Amino acid sequence: MQAHRMRVVVPEDHRAIVEFPETIRSGPVELIVLVPPENEAEEVHKPAGQGRLAALAAELARDARPFRELSPEERSARIEKVMGAGRGLMSTSEEFARRKLEEIESEERKLGR
Asked: Is residue 8 part of a domain?
């Protein structure tokens, strides 16, 4: 017997449609549902090994309303969350400019200028 793992979130109405991958042959199968303990339930929703932005995306996906339908306060809160999760992932423009100047100086030294 082969095991295939799929993570799902049980919706409020407790109904779900299961779509099996093409690699599973048609015919009888045994479906087993493993429910984590209450204190581990939040762990299931966090994408494993994908970091802050994936966790933030999962959190924001819980509210399916489009951004334009949010109140100004809700929009600001979402933007703050996104900025906070992304902080430190990219260089600031000042850091970028400093590195470029260092590269230019290095090249000029190589060329004897």
From this structure: no
Q: What is the pTM of this model?
A: 0.35
- Euclidean distance between CA atoms 51 and 37, whole angstroms: 23
> Considering the domain boundaries, does residue 103 fall inside one?
yes
Residue 47: the pLDDT is: 47
Question: Measured on CA atoms in the order 14, 54, 18, 35, is the torsion positive or negative?
Answer: negative
Residue 33's nearest CA partner among 21, 16, 46 is 16
Alpha-carbon span 24 to 2, nearest angstrom: 9
Q: Distance between CA 85 and CA 1 in Å, rounded?
A: 42
Size of the chain, expressed as the number of residues it contains: 113
| Cα–Cα distance measured from residue 34 to residue 43, given in angstroms and rounded to the nearest whole number | 14
Residue 84 is assigned to a structural domain of this protein: yes
